[in-house]
């Protein structure tokens, strides 16, 4: 499906030629495309799913880590700290929710206290503000924390972010600046040909001067086609609980246990939407697409989370989910700038702190691409998106005036999350399309509440169908073939 840019709505009748083809529409693909859109050159992003941000970028902990954990001297340490500092400005430009709430890494015994000292030294070396606190200050900072906690490493520079709109708004910005987006288009073959790259998909073929692989575990498959191996990627799956927004004051910080070889462990955190996340587990899997959950794993996640916060109200749980991330055996991010295949770039092994590191990593990779292609900055471009109208964030006086001038914002189409018709229509009018209920859910939060779309779904399907010019029965929930309606049971008389 062709979406965005001059090719929208056209059937491929020729071999389209681009300066850069980006493979993968996660947060890295969206941010890198946005950065490239500031330069003269034709850029195409290919995404196999029905929306951007449907993989690891939409199934993570939504935390912008401070940078105390990565080993000093690693790429993870460098880009985590740089990326963290870039987020406030980036989220202002892209109109994305970001909250600086700080993190607490909690110890329950003397061995854990020693580990906190090591982490404090790492934080100092990495240039991250951090201090170790004990009781009673710890209980004062976080009353819901277990009273068995002895000490914690407090890092005030940790943020929580909305990863769904971060990816979507970055891609919207890129499209507004001329980047082309093709959804539901999977890259099946990649080869070098006459100084260009031939990119074959399930829908056609393209040529490009440069190719950037940002497809997580699928990178390995495409790299092998060009004779490049040795990146050692593995899939690691994490399972989570999502709690309803039952109490805005229940937790005030991101809570971590002492990290292990498996990662940062099962955390408990607020989200920018007022929900709470508990997870993830951390187990290797052979399949990057395998995102099922299981009872035993979730029970273990629950047990570990209750060690941090015994009073976690699991009766407020509204769903569970799982996500996979690519983990490198090298233990660090891999920035691939190929010598054997000039013009081939990739980022591999992007696990935690991948979300925090994304703006800085993309910034540096774009510099390499621009230098290789000798691209010049555009005379004019947009650095951000048109602000979104969010009545619930206005004062009472501002909201009343706004409602009088914009009555569609008074009609609620999602009662759980209080999403209005005006907000939905605004999202549907943007350059980044919503091809599914899940896409609209991630943009507006309609369907994220207790009913999980059971009540609001029927309100949203006609709006999507009208925008796309299709029948309601053709509206997807997510992937191709995931139509919500299976048949028409009644046809209203004219």
Can you offer a commentary on this structure?
The protein has 494 residues and is an alpha+beta fold. It folds into three domains: 2-56 and 164-232 and 331-373, 3-Layer(bba) Sandwich (FAD/NAD(P)-binding domain); 98-159 and 233-325, D-Amino Acid Oxidase, Chain A, domain 2 (2-Layer Sandwich); 391-474, Arc Repressor Mutant, subunit A, CATH 1.10.10. 30% of the residues lie in helices and 23% in strands. Strands 1, 2, 3, 10, 11, 12, 13, 20 and 21 form a nine-stranded mixed beta sheet that branches. Strands 14, 16, 17, 18 and 19 form a five-stranded antiparallel beta sheet that branches. A four-stranded mixed beta sheet has the order 7-8-6-15. The protein is globular and about 65 Å long. It starts with a strand and ends in a 26-residue tail after the last helix. The relative contact order is 0.16.
């Amino acid at each position: 499906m062709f979406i965005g840019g001059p090719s929208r709505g056209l059937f491929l009748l020729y071999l389209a030629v681009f300066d850069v083809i980006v493979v993968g529409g996660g947060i890295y693909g969206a941010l890198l495309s946005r950065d490239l859109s500031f330069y003269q050159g034709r850029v195409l992003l290919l995404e196999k799913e029905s929306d951007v941000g449907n993989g690891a970028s939409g199934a993570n902990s939504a935390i912008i880590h401070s940078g105390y954990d990565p080993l000093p001297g690693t790429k993870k340490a460098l880009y985590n700290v740089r990326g963290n500092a870039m987020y406030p400005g980036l989220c202002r430009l892209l109109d994305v929710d970001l909250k600086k709430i700080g993190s607490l890494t909690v110890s329950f015994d003397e061995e854990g206290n020693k580990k906190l000292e090591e982490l404090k030294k790492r934080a100092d070396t990495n240039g991250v503000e951090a201090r170790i606190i004990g009781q009673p200050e710890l209980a004062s900072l976080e009353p819901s924390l277990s009273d068995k906690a002895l000490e914690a490493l407090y890092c005030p520079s940790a943020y929580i972010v909305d990863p769904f709109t971060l990816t979507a708004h970055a891609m919207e910005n890129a499209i507004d600046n001329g980047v082309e987006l093709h959804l539901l288009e999977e890259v099946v073959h990649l080869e070098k040909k006459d100084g260009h790259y031939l990119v074959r998909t399930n829908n056609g073929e393209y040529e490009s001067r440069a190719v950037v692989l940002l497809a997580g575990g699928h990178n390995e498959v495409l790299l092998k086609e060009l004779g490049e191996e040795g990146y050692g990627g593995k899939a690691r799956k994490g399972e989570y609980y999502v709690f309803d927004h039952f109490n805005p004051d229940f937790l005030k910080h991101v809570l971590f246990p002492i990290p292990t070889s498996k990662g940062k462990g099962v955390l408990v955190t607020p989200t920018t939407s007022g929900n709470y996340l508990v997870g993830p587990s951390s187990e290797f899997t052979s399949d990057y697409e395998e995102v099922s959950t299981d009872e035993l794993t979730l029970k273990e996640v629950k047990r570990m989370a209750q060690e941090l916060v015994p009073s976690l109200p699991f009766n407020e749980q509204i769903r569970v989910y799982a996500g996979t991330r690519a983990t490198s055996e090298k233990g660090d991010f891999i920035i691939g700038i190929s010598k054997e295949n000039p013009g081939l770039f990739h980022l591999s092994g992007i696990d935690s702190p991948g979300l925090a590191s994304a703006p800085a990593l993309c910034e540096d990779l774009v510099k390499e691409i621009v230098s290789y292609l000798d691209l010049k900055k555009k005379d004019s471009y947009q650095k951000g998106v048109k602000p979104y109208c969010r009545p619930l964030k206005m004062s009472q006086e501002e909201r009343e005036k706004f409602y009088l001038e914009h009555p569609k914002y008074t009609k609620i189409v999602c009662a759980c999350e209080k999403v209005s018709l005006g907000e939905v229509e605004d999202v549907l009018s943007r350059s980044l399309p919503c091809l599914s209920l899940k896409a609209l859910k991630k943009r507006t939060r309609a369907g994220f509440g207790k009913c999980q779309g059971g009540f609001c779904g029927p309100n949203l399907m006609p709006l999507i169908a009208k925008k796309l010019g299709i029948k309601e029965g053709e509206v997807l929930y997510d992937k191709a073939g995931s139509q919500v309606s299976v048949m028409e049971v009644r046809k209203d008389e004219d």
